[in-house]
Amino acid sequence: MPNKLQWQKILDRTWSEEVAHLLPMGVEKWPGWGVKSFASKCDSVKYYIDLLNNHSAYEKFRKLRLTTNDSTLLIRTLDKFSTTKDYDKRVIRMIKKIRKLEEK
């Protein structure tokens, strides 16, 4: 069973009652939005890739991606996706840890 952070990675909001969704705990009647659910983590990743490639909120990301593949710079453009103010710092910290492990 995914923990809270893992669920955040496989869920997104929907404003259509027709889209597969979950309602927040304690909410039984459609409030005008739901938490979109995906059949698998792969489906979630495909959706996220589509957002990055097509949604207007990520235009800065796409423009920068044309000039660099520096993930630490690209991450800073994903503020519309983040759920916390320090999202970019957290992800960059993880990237640096992974790079250190790869060097070993």
Strand order across the biggest sheet?
Answer: 1-3-2
Task: Give the termini separation.
Answer: 32 Å
CA radius of gyration:
16 Å
Q: Helical residue percent?
A: 40-55%
Largest sheet: 3 strands, antiparallel
Compressed to H and E, one letter per element, the order equals HEEEHHHH
Instruction: Name the shape in a single word.
Output: elongated
Overall residue-averaged pLDDT value? 81
Q: How many β-strand stretches?
A: 3
Overall number of structural domains: 2
Helix count from the secondary structure assignment: 5
Question: Helix/strand/pairing class, anyone?
Answer: mainly alpha
Residues in β-strands, percent: 5-15%
Q: Unreliable stretches, pLDDT < 50, 5 or more residues? A: 1-11
Structure, described:
The structure is a single chain. The chain has five helices and three strands. Mean pLDDT is 81; it is low at 1-11. It folds into two domains: 1-54, no CATH class; 55-104, no CATH class. It is mainly alpha-helical.
Give a quick rundown of the structure:
The chain has 104 residues and is mainly α. It is built from five helices and three strands; from the N terminus they run αβββαααα.
